[in-house]
């Protein structure tokens, strides 16, 4: 039900253009009988792709429908089991209505109420949850927690893009120190690239200029990202800071 016209720009904004992505709805046949394969996840195409991936990015929309799908719930738990970073991104980052819709979906997530195109697939996934995930309710709680954490990280990203230093600082030094986006960038990377010079200075001071030379997945520091985008104000401030 999601709009492809939302999906594409959301991916392009979240990831570097050189990133290779595997999109499960395009990459596997969606109408086969998977029930016979679920006892051995190595045989499931999405599971093989997930094992080979570095991380998982969930793209949702105003309906937050993705969190009602059995397959997506199973993928989230496998990402947790296999220690794959799990992130969420939204097409309208400044829409509080969208954030609230997603948060509400996560708060009420119930695997037993999720759906699949083929009912037999849903039953097979529920059986797998009972046998391998500590039960359906345990799986629901696990994925609620995983997704809530991912949503929290996504909101930090939103605040950094907006340059909302006051709310960022309320998150605390630990959050600001540990946070990374899916591209491996710190809050300072994001602030610098969006020319939020005052917010960049305040956040950098709050974490003791810890990330001045931190590199993202492409090996770029906040200064490097700002210079690449031609953000003169951020470049000047970062150069002056050492």
UniProtKB/TrEMBL annotation:
<protein>
    <submittedName>
        <fullName>Uncharacterized protein</fullName>
    </submittedName>
</protein>
<dbReference type="InterPro" id="IPR002110">
    <property type="entry name" value="Ankyrin_rpt"/>
</dbReference>
<feature type="repeat" description="ANK">
    <location>
        <begin position="218"/>
        <end position="242"/>
    </location>
</feature>
<dbReference type="InterPro" id="IPR036770">
    <property type="entry name" value="Ankyrin_rpt-contain_sf"/>
</dbReference>
<keyword id="KW-0040">ANK repeat</keyword>
